[in-house]
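User: Can you help me understand a structure? I only have the sequence.
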Amino acid sequence: MTRIAARGAALGSLAVITLAFLGPFLWVLLSSVQPESNLSATPTFEFSFRNFDAVLNWETVYLPVINSVVISGSTAVITVVVAGLAAYPLSRYRLRFKRHFLLTLLFTTGLPVTAIMVPVYSMFFRFNLYGSLPAMVLFLAASSLPFAIWMMKNFMDGVPVSLEEAAWVDGAGWFQSLTRVVGPLMAPGVAVVAIFVFVGQWGNFFAPFVLLDAPDKQPAAVTIYTFFSQYGQVAYGRLAAFSIIYTAPAVFLYVAVSKYLAGSFSFAGSVKG
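Assistant: Let's start by predicting it. Here is the structure, written out as tokens:
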């Protein structure tokens, strides 16, 4: 295959992937502003914000979004802190079972949460934790830890050990060197882990649906289920309007931390030879 043909095949593949994402996105945009929208989302010249007015209330949008922010934010904070503390010895010290532990972490990253929901549900019910928001946040943080530790360890490996050794010479302990030297230098990596965990839990439907009993505790991902009736009818316009509002916080988060994500792990000049 010539170079031009390979480039054309790559651009064609990217165009197909782009259209695959743009199609559902355009359907959501059109359906949200069409008064009588349906599954076909046929474009008309009638535009209305009636669907947004119908869903913008405390029960449908505000309370579920607040619950999503609390659940996803708490899970991201706990996961980042614990993953940072767990990744530090894996990155800096020679441990006897380090390789086996890392392979175990890699294996658990491929284990779907749905595969363990039945024993988790039984455990929550047995210890009277069913419906407890803090208990569910701890479970979500625990399920996010394997991949977070794996990523955090790889980011931490990029920070030169000599910078920590200089801090140790000045009298800093391991905790001071972690929080004042390693942590700030790997801020883009911490942001990546936090966003990965936040976005993953923002769209988590199954765990809150199984572990939370009261509707006033459910996040926005579960609220989408209310637009589907038991007889197969769907309020497409309201569903599309809710989907746009539901997606907005995650997009704003990406934009807010984009400068950290664009930062490189270049430590050139930080160490003198």
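Now, to help you interpret it: The chain has two domains: 1-51, 57-265. Residues 57-265 form a domain with the MetI-like fold fold (CATH 1.10.3720.10). Let me know which part you'd like to focus on.
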